């Protein structure tokens, strides 16, 4: 965080009183004390000490002289920040319609139950067909121009050695995707998905490429162990960028994946703060940690969560401990739900974005198909919290969106049986309650 000019510095040990509310304040901003409230509080607009005097330091947001609170009192400065939040936040939550339609649901269930099979014999495929019909508001399900979007970003918390791989692997894996050599490339080609790789915050300068969408918010988040991972402005930029990407893409099916060293740590932190899951339950081996490395990771995440204990609202939590790819994916999911697209949710990281999206707009989950259960322990807890039944459980933990595309044939099968399978009446077959059945 940028320090104010020397001329503005005061003795950090001095307790001053706010002229407006009388609150006492000992601020560590000028001395770099990370325990100071203004370091740890996840603001939408970061305001350093110099801004409180109506000046700009290091490109920080400027507060007009007339609006300057005159001190860094938490009470007064929070009022100012709240007002600035309202004026500068660029992301607006899109309107998302619940898929609930009693009449249509009855029609769909009747159609499914009267196919030439015992009732419920196709198991989860029947539930999936019902969900797809409700999303598309039609008893004939169709898909067109499916899209696969992989969001990539680096995480400052990776500096705490919470991953088995160095942060440089993020950029290297993005290059591999752009060259067509990653697992997600293989599956996208196999299943006919248009693949897009988004630079949401990779700590490298990536060359232009037809497959690459340049949406870098910053070169990685800040180290959440020491300070908020991102500012509120960065958070809202990421949310809006994700929404804008979805708006620009065709099709009625969209799958989301990710790439980012350190992102299982961010996902675990989001899960523990937004649910009743413990850090031990939420924290897994990620890219393949040893037992000792896993213990270290849990300790780092415990200290990180403690540092941001005041962050409780979904967006505050996302800004304090999330990642740019998770934030961008959250905005993308919300936009996709508002457009009534079928959303294919991959593993733990994509699931954490789905969790935040659902916290912001519960109806968004109606549009989500949870494609697989990751081997990451936190993902099991996340799915349990959302009461979501994944389509596959293959012991995977790769990410990238691979689990989402592996589940794609199941969606196609659900649509085909709904559309093409004969009914008892059309096939001239006696149903369960017919006299012929009773005579058997």
Write structural notes for this entry.
- The protein has 440 residues and is of the alpha/beta class.
- It has two domains: 6-88, no CATH class; 147-416, Nicotinate-nucleotide-dimethylbenzimidazole phosphoribosyltransferase (CobT), large domain (Rossmann fold, 3-Layer(aba) Sandwich).
- The protein contains 18 helices and eight strands.
- It has helices spanning 37-40, 74-88, 102-113, 124-136, 168-178, 183-191, 232-248, 263-274, 279-282, 291-307, 314-321, 324-338, 348-360, 377-386, 402-406, 408-420, 424-427, 435-439, and strands at residues 16-17, 24-25, 147-153, 194-201, 212-214, 253-259, 342-345, 368-370.
- Strands 5-4-3-6-7-8 form a six-stranded parallel beta sheet, with helices on both faces. Strands 1-2 form a two-stranded antiparallel sheet.
- β7, α13 and β8 form a beta-alpha-beta unit.
- The N and C termini lie far apart (79 Å).
- The model is unreliable at 1-14, 23-72 and 435-440 (pLDDT under 50).
């Amino acid at each position: 965080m940028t320090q104010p000019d020397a001329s503005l510095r005061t003795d950090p040990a001095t307790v001053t009183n706010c002229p407006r509310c009388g609150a006492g304040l000992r601020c560590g901003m000028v001395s770099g004390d990370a325990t100071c409230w203004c370091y740890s509080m996840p603001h939408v607009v970061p305001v350093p000490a110099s801004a409180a005097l109506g000046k700009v330091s290091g490109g920080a947001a400027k507060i007009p002289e007339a609006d300057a609170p005159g001190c860094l009192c938490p009470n007064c400065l929070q009022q100012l920040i709240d007002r600035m939040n309202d004026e500068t936040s660029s992301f607006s939550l899109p309107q998302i319609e619940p898929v609930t339609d009693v009449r249509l649901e009855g029609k769909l269930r009747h159609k499914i139950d009267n196919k030439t099979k015992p009732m419920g014999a196709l198991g989860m495929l029947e539930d999936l067909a019902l969900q797809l019909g409700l999303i598309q508001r039609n008893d004939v399900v169709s898909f067109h121009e499916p899209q696969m979007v992989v969001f990539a970003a680096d995480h400052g918390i990776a500096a705490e050695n919470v991953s088995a791989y160095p942060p440089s692997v993020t950029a290297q894996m993005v290059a591999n995707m752009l060259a067509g050599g990653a697992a997600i490339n293989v599956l996208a080609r196999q299943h006919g998905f248009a693949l897009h790789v988004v630079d949401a915050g990779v700590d490298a300068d990536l060359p232009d490429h037809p497959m690459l969408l340049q949406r870098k918010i910053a070169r990685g988040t800040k180290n959440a162990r020491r300070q908020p991972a991102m500012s509120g402005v960065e958070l809202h930029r990421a949310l809006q960028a994700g929404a804008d990407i979805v708006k620009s893409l065709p099709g009625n099916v969209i799958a989301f994946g990710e790439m980012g060293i350190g992102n299982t740590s961010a996902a675990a932190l989001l899960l523990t703060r937004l649910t009743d899951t413990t850090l031990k339950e939420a924290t897994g081996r990620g890219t393949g940690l040893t037992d000792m490395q896993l213990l270290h990771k849990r300790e780092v995440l415990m200290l990180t969560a403690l540092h941001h204990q005041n962050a409780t609202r979904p967006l505050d939590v996302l800004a304090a401990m999330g990642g740019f790819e998770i934030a961008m994916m959250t905005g993308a999911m919300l936009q996709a739900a508002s457009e009534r697209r079928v959303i294919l949710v991959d593993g733990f990281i994509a699931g954490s974005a789905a969790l935040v999206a659902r916290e912001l707009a519960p109806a968004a989950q109606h549009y989500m198909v949870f494609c697989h259960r990751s081997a990451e322990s936190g993902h099991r807890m996340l799915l349990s919290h959302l009461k979501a039944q994944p389509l596959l459980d293959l012991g995977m933990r790769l990410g990238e969106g691979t689990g989402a595309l592996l589940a794609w044939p199941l969606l196609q099968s659900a649509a085909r049986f709904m559309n093409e399978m004969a009914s008892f009446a059309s096939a001239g077959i006696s149903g369960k309650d017919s006299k012929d059945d009773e005579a058997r």
